């Protein structure tokens, strides 16, 4: 995951935010008071969205650094195809 080294701090911050979201889900479920199912589902949806965003970020780095090797100087068609793939993945993971 060499491409992640440059973004290590950014990725770790995202992971820590996700951990906080998962902890909030756990606290809500463990709470003594009766919480609404909608509240728990909203928290789960938020954590899932954050996880999908993390996946999109790691996949984008993988595509840019491993599939379209910048050292090899990809053609404009290859670069365009890689960007299209990244855009589709980001849309799918929303």
| Proportion of beta-strand residues | under 5%
What is the C-level CATH assignment?
A: Mainly Alpha
Spans with pLDDT under 50 lasting ≥5 residues?
none
Helix coverage percent: over 70%
If you average the pLDDT, what whole number results? 88
User: What is the CATH superfamily label?
Assistant: Metal-sensitive repressor, helix protomer
CATH topology-level fold name:
Methane Monooxygenase Hydroxylase, Chain G, domain 1
Please give the CATH architecture: Up-down Bundle
What would you call the structural class?
mainly alpha
Q: Please work out how many helical segments DSSP would assign.
A: 3
Secondary-structure topology with pairs:
Blueprint: H1 8-30, H2 37-67, H3 76-92
Helix pairs in contact: 1-2, 2-3
What does this structure look like?
The protein is mainly alpha-helical. The protein has one domain: Metal-sensitive repressor, helix protomer (Methane Monooxygenase Hydroxylase, Chain G, domain 1), CATH 1.20.58.1000. It is 76% helix and 0% strand. The chain has three helices and no strands. The longest helix has 31 residues.
């Amino acid at each position: 995951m060499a491409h992640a080294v440059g973004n290590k701090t950014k990725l770790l911050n995202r992971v820590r935010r996700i951990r906080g979201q998962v902890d909030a889900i756990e606290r809500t479920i463990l709470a003594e008071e009766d919480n609404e199912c909608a509240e728990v589902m909203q928290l789960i949806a938020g954590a899932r969205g954050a996880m999908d965003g993390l996946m999109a970020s790691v996949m984008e780095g993988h595509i840019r650094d491993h599939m379209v090797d910048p050292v090899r100087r990809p053609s404009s068609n290859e670069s365009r195809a890689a960007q299209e793939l990244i855009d589709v993945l980001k849309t799918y993971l929303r």
